[in-house]
């Protein structure tokens, strides 16, 4: 919810919320890296801490148990809001998750992906500072600094638009260029973005990991950093607040058999 007096998001439901709120189902992609599952579980626990009494469940698109169809089957005919732990619009958000939701007996709504949103930028900024990014720079340091926003990549043009939007928000926050780059499918790759920035005279180049959790892509992108590389977004408190924000947005929509909120909104 947005506190209009402060302009900040809060984790408390506002007046008029249902006595029994819909369950929140976090939808992870799934990974063979065990650190990814640990991260998603930690994020789910942080959400529970922020919103006591809210039923929070986890379901994966592939690779990890529980799979999303199994989680939804366990809910029976209950109402649920599915919040994708994905950072942009793409095939999983537009097709896979809604199709799994439509096949379930549970009354489901599919929230927008997490990005773009200022709370993601808060998390990216915090991870950069943890990695050694200086919040105060001289003019010379600023002219020589830049960030590569390392994302997974997708063939969906909406996914590219969302990632570029996040890059612009982060650039506004940092006051230096932020170039989106990708681990697969889309261009430029992270090494290509690093080379282009180096050729333009930027030698203090950080790679910001735009991944929810550790995995192969995040590890490979970090290796391309000529200066510092951040940890993935992980279970940062701002991520938990953003999940609840997406949940609240979707839960407030008029009910249909499967309500989808595809366009990210602040």
Descriptive overview:
This protein is α/β, with parallel strands linked by helices and 266 residues long. It has two domains: 139 residues, Rossmann fold (3-Layer(aba) Sandwich); 112 residues, Rossmann fold (3-Layer(aba) Sandwich). Helix content is 40%, strand content 18%. The strands form three sheets. The protein has a five-stranded parallel β-sheet with strand order 4-3-5-6-11, sandwiched between helices. A hairpin with a 4-residue loop joins β1 and β2. α1 packs across α9 and α4 packs across α6. The longest helix has 18 residues. The protein is elongated. The protein starts with a strand and ends in a 6-residue tail after the last strand. The N terminus is likely disordered.
